[in-house]
Amino acid sequence: MKNTTLKSFSIVTAAHNSSAFIHNCIESIINSNYDLNKIEHVIIDDGSVDNTKSIVLKYISKYPHIKYVYKQNGNWGSVINYVIDHRLVNNDYVCILDSDDRIHPQTFQRANKLLNDDTDCVVGSIYWWNGKRTTLYTSSNLFLFKKKYTKKLPYTVSVLPATFIIKQNIFYKSMHLLENVPHQDTILLASYFNNIKSIKYTHYPFVYYWSTRVGNTMVDIKDDKNILIHLANYKKLSEMNMPHFYVWSLLSWKHMRRYMKQNQIKIHFNVKLSFKWMPIWAKPFFWLAYLLIIKHYFTFADSKPTKP
What pLDDT, in 10s, does the model give residues 153-168? Predict the structure, then answer.
């Protein structure tokens, strides 16, 4: 029997000096093929000094589903903390959409079909725009990881928060993020997975992500200051014993490897690094990656991972 009940969605947008592009974010939701009475768009102005506010207020005068809140600047993590602390989202499911990104017009329709009372979260794919072309990056779990999520195998690849549509109560259980620093999205997603019991993945794209925008914190990821922030995130994940969120990122992250090697830094996880959750074809590759790279930067319970 098909589910004909329309679920409600809250979209949280962190905005800081976003006047040049926030209209695209707002209009992508307005133009989504979904009942706006079932949509709540909460825009948190994180201390903007441009005309972000005036742009948002023009939309509010026409669209009552949009809410605007101003707070002092504290970076992305502080916005998520603020929304949670002040209980600013009210709908069934929550999605985080940055002010320079856009939602796909079919996202809410597709999520509505996939979600039910027994599903805590649905994860979609990404349209990745680098300023010249758009590339579809599908949810990695669909071809590399087990499609069915279980607490025994809580493995995933860290992706954009905008690709996660999650139950409101799970969102409100999220841990406090670091303030006044970027790159807190992986910690938020790890926090989600600490409370998720059931999840679905889909090839359908949920978001258009602008990866090369000037000012995007991903652009200056090589900066030493950002390396220290990511190193703090590594340590946070080690406390949570969730290595799968960051461990494999080191394979392509030579700047972090260089820094950890120069400073003789190793991160310990009190769990085994297992390969059982991978399909047969992927196990040899990741086992080799562990032997050549990963073991030089991370240690795990009983020192050695479970062989594939």
Answer: 444 555 678 889 999 9
